[in-house]
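Whiteboard transcription, Tuesday session. T.W. wrote the structure tokens on the left side:
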């Protein structure tokens, strides 16, 4: 498994958390952000401890992930034909503490994600068009088409 530079078009942006004695404000996405492609829908994927979701690929939608609750390991695989990082994998931790970042994901990338926190994780997603089950594809985690074995 080749695991090196960031997959082409995939971007990670550290996010601010403004903490005080009452709690905190967690930044997430601004329409002025360079990778903002418009607003379609925001939702959460709740993942229970140890559960792995995916493989999933959105063919049209641009996604912005962050994990404000818990911790998630996400594996992204690029099998886009003309991509300079075709065949590459990225493994990225998203969480509410040390890795509170926004992951900007262009269409066409396969991914799966596992809750690695003791309690459930909320993976927040803002997409640029409303959810359309017909523009995405799924593959079972044990597919032979993606050479990655979740431990
Ligand atoms: C994403 C989404 C799902 N659903 C429905 C479809 C299905 O019946 C149920 C569960 O959907 P899923 O199994 O796809 O949910 P889940 O496995 O949590 O995955 C979700 O996580 C994020 C990160 C994605 O990648 C999304 O595409 C979505 O697949 O919720 C909606 O009604 N609206 C939505 O916006």
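and on the right, the sequence the group agreed on:
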């Amino acid at each position: 498994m080749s695991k090196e530079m960031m997959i082409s078009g995939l971007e990670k942006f550290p996010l601010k958390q403004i903490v005080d004695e009452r709690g905190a404000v967690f930044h997430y996405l601004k329409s002025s952000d360079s990778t903002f492609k418009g607003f379609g829908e925001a939702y959460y994927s709740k993942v229970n401890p140890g559960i792995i979701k995916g493989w999933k690929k959105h063919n049209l939608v641009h996604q912005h992930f962050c994990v404000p609750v818990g911790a998630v390991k996400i594996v992204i695989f690029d099998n886009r034909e003309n991509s300079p990082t075709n065949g590459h994998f990225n493994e990225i931790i998203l969480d509410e503490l040390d890795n509170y970042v926004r992951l900007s994901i262009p269409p066409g990338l396969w991914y799966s994600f596992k809750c690695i926190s003791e309690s459930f994780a909320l993976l927040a997603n803002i997409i640029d068009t409303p959810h359309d089950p017909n523009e995405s594809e799924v593959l079972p985690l044990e597919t032979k088409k993606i050479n990655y074995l979740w431990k």
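Someone added at the bottom: Residues 41, 43, 45, 53, 56, 123, 125, 131, 136 surround dtdp-4-keto-L-rhamnose (CB under 6 Å).
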